[in-house]
Amino acid sequence: MKKILLLLGILVATLSAQAQEDATRDVLERLALASSSEQSAITEELSALGDPYIKDFVDAWRTGEVFSYDVSESETIVLRKVSEKFRRLSNDEIFEIADEENDENLSKIRPSRKLRKVLKTITDTIDLSSPDPRARIEAALKLGLSQKTDYLEALQSKIETEENEKVRLKFEEAINISLLANAEDDEALKHSIARLGELASLPARDGIIGIQNEATESGDAEMVAICAEAIKDIDSAQKTIERWGNLVRGMSTGSVLLIVAFGLAITFGLMGIINMAHGEFIAIGGYTCYVVQNLFADAFGTQSAAYQWFYWTAIPISFVVAGVIGYGLEKGMFRFLYKRPLESLLATWGLSMIMQQLFRLNFGAANVQVNTPDVLIGNFEVAGVALSYTRIFVIGFAVFVILMTWLLLSKTNLGLYIRSVMQNRNMASSLGIPVSKVNSLTFAFGCGLAALAGAALSQIGNVGPTMGQTYIVDSFMVVVVGGVGNLLGAGLSAMGIGTVDQFLQPYWGPVMGKIIVYFVIILFLQWKPGGLFPTKSRSMDD
Amino acid sequence: MNLFDNKLEARGFIVAAIVLLFALPMLNGLTSPDSFLHVSSFQISLWGKYVTYAILAMSLNVLWGYTGMLCLCQSLFFALGAYAFGMYLMLHVGVDTVYNTALPDFMDFQGYTELPWYWKPFESAPFAVLAAVGIPGIVSFIFGVLVFRSRIKGVYFSIITQALTYALMLLFFKNNLELFGQSFILFGGNNGLNGFKEIFGASVDSASTQRWLFIASVLLMLTVYLAIAWVLKTKFGKVQQAIRDSENRIRFSGYSTTTYKLLIFTVCAMIAGAAGALYVPQVGGINANEMTPAKSLDVVVWVAFGGRGTKFGPILGAVVVSLLKSFFLRAAPDSWLIILGAIFIFTVLFMPNGLVGLPQQLKPLWKRIRSKSTTSTVPVS
Fold first, then answer.
1. Count of domains for chain B
2. DSSP-derived secondary structure letter, A302
3. Is residue B111 domain-resident?
4. pLDDT more than 90, % of chain A
5. Would you list the DSSP string of A410-441?
6. What ipTM goes with this model?
7. A356 and B337 in contact by Cβ < 8 A?
8. Which pLDDT tens digit goes with each residue over B38-82?
9. Which of B85, B180, B75, B158 is nearest to B124 (CA)?
10. Is there a domain that residue B377 lies in?
11. Residue B360: which residues within 8 A CB-CB, separation 6 or more?
12. Quick one: pLDDT at residue A323?
């Protein structure tokens, strides 16, 4: 029932949008055919509409793609040339016009200079009435920062009718920014500055500093104090935002690290082999997203709704692709390396070189672009702190992956097998557990996890041949700090390392931050040589 | 005490010493360039580079082949030695034409008017030579104390050493280091140190300098070889090999494996540093690319390919892989990394004893083939 209602809702919304566009087209047609004396009345009607189609049409009009066409003596209509076809403005009906140059009924129309100016103001301010609140905010700030009086009026008139509280505040901010240059007297200016301080407006900061400098020169102590106060407010708000931003960035990097380290911890803890090519499986994930994106773009076109699904399709595909490759490699190579950890390190390093070079040969040495689906574009705002959706998605995704891994390991038969082989391979084997099958599947699963990390990374980082290298050293650190084969330890240390790294960066720079993290890890191992949760065993060499 | 295992080794060593120390330099210096016996200066400095690589591989082999520690920071120590000596060379390039100062260009570029205090000592040649050996020694000692004390071993040791390499590489790629509110100029960032002019008062590029550098490299290699041969026969060397085979048993027997490992780790770092110091004037530059973790793994593949835990293997491996590299980089630049990776995998999977152990490995196979062929030719009576 709910679904039907939802569908109905969508239908109604689409229909009403269609109706509005029809009205807009009607007004535009009248405008295009009107004499210059009538035009001013029609433009007013137009400015109240706020339909994005207006912008589109005005652009076409300016560039000479709009024509008037005499259907009969008394009836003239407006045609628009869209990709070499003439379409009627009011209903998109196609008109076949054989000879464009010499058709007497057809004539190109262009807006007069005066009209163009009016239209520009309308199209510039049109986003202020956009149905999308984000677009309204963006437009308001852009117009405010331009500090032109024409736009100030538009903003002031629009704020009256604005219903969304958040957008209202942004409109107010934009008006006040504009007033920094256009204020009538000093009193109004001071009021604006104080208000901008309260609103913690970062875009206004430069303007206020300029005013402060002027005031310092002219000796206006009160103005200087007000400016200083406002700047202090803005800066402290900015600090808070930065701190939260760092936390989220750190957590999302930590999440990627976590997924990577989980795969590593499982393969390492289970089979005692160090997979230096683990990083390249991350790259496989990233590149799978890229390939799937291109396939979708070829099949559906980038504008279609189906294209938006490429990323969600790519995630499971990347897991499967990497899993299959990992399965094959386990059968063909890693099988021979069990219990020879140092040698396995070398062979996998060789593998990683080969894979990297193959990526380079296939996709080029430069990074490739994986787009972000529309759903993940933009920011989520809490108390003025903008957190990008991609980063939040990555954190949520990591939680999901961890949950799945935990379920797999603790609730399924395969998980039981895996744990038993991890604890004692020979005993497990003698009890009839198919050890070699478990090995292959686990290794494939570990590689799949790496690819999932790569798919997540494609949204917050670069996809390139060496993308895995950046993470591999870190993720080994995570495994060592967490305690080998211990998933809880891996989780804690990944989040810890990711967040500490991000927090150190502003103070020490990325390089020193990293060096400090490594140094702290080495010192930490002095205190707890086996990591956070060392494996408990009676064997001497574990 | 006889240093060599058998007569073949002793003879080979003497022949190598004569050829490398006397014959090649003489063919370079005494014959005319047109003679077919002439060895060009390019070849001399190229082989000089390979010899330093061989020394580096030998130092890693001591750690990995004999003590069982797969150290992934050996090329870091090599680079540290190279940087230390490179700083000396950098300070003797004379007054450049662009900035008209005696400072290295990258300092001029950043607006330095005088040498920072931590660069000053490197103006003296003896100090630079000492630092080329000492700095890797100090770094490895401090790192070794921390690592061995907490009994990090096996793959964890490899991972930690790789992290050290990675961290210092990041540092050396930087131009400046901001620390405690002060800015320290580092070592030339991306470009590193290059454009050297003179060494100990002689021109770096002249044929005779390159010849002497080659001789010095060979001397170092031969000395290291003898030293390894000697150490292996002593109790110290035997304990090292025992640590490789079973560290816990050695510890139970009352040896402080930490001390043994620390000592050998430090010494090997110093050898690598010395090799780096000889490398830099022969190649004409050093930059942070020599510090990437990949370079350290290259050294590991030299050792593995040549024959790990043998005296001659690392030398052979370093030279053969370097020759292969220079051949393939010209013939098929795109596929070099794939070939190198394949060598890694093939060596690990099928050649556990490397090139040196190959005859031994193939012996049974060869025997079977021969016995087959003899049975086929000789009719059964």
1. 1
2. T
3. yes
4. 6
5. HHSHHHHHHHHHHH-HHHHHHTT--HHHHHHH
6. 0.80
7. yes
8. 777 788 888 888 999 999 999 999 999 898 888 888 999 999 999
9. B85
10. no
11. B353
12. 93
